[in-house]
Amino acid sequence: MYGEMTDVRGYGVIAAASGTGTGGHISEFPSSGSASSPPPHALPPIFIMSTNSYIVVFKDHATPEQINQYAGRVSSEGGEVGHRYDSVFKGFSAKLPDSLLQNFQGDDIIQYIG
Questions:
Q1: Helix (H) or strand (E) holding 84
Q2: Main-chain dihedrals φ then ψ at residue 69, nearest 5 degrees
Q3: Which residues contact 35 (CB under 8 A, 6 or more apart)?
């Protein structure tokens, strides 16, 4: 599914949802009727969503060692761990391969993946 918008700089933005409905990709292109390059004061894009990017939230009883084991699995199976969270909730952001996502979703120690 694709959607098109125009940002304040006159650039178009295409948002494409992934097949799972949980991620997407945003691309920029000059909108029709605008210059082919942004004005000199234009800011870079604020964010770019990527498919397979998730936040893995663990249940309260998960220990730091258990969370480290899951983070290690992400890295060893071709994914990438981003930020770690431990003050408001226990978890991490990560790019997860589809097979690992399915494996994590059925695990009792994980509260949810969003």
A1: strand 80-85
A2: -65, -40
A3: 10
113 neighbors 52 (Cβ within 8 angstroms): no
pLDDT tens-digit series, residues 28-76: 444 444 455 555 555 554 444 457 899 999 999 999 999 999 999 999 9
What is the structure's pLDDT at 44?
A: 53
Q: Which residue has the tokens 């120690």?
A: 109
Do residues 83 and 95 make contact, with C-beta atoms less than 8 angstroms apart?
A: no
Percent of the chain with pLDDT over 90: 48
Q: Look up the pTM and report it.
A: 0.56
Sign of the torsion formed by the C-alpha atoms of 32, 35, 39 and 40:
positive
- Positive or negative CA dihedral for 25, 27, 32, 33? positive
Say how far apart CA 52 and CA 64 lie, in whole Å.
Answer: 24
Residue type, 3: G
DSSP letter at 90? E
pLDDT of residue 73: 96
Return the DSSP state at 30. Answer: E
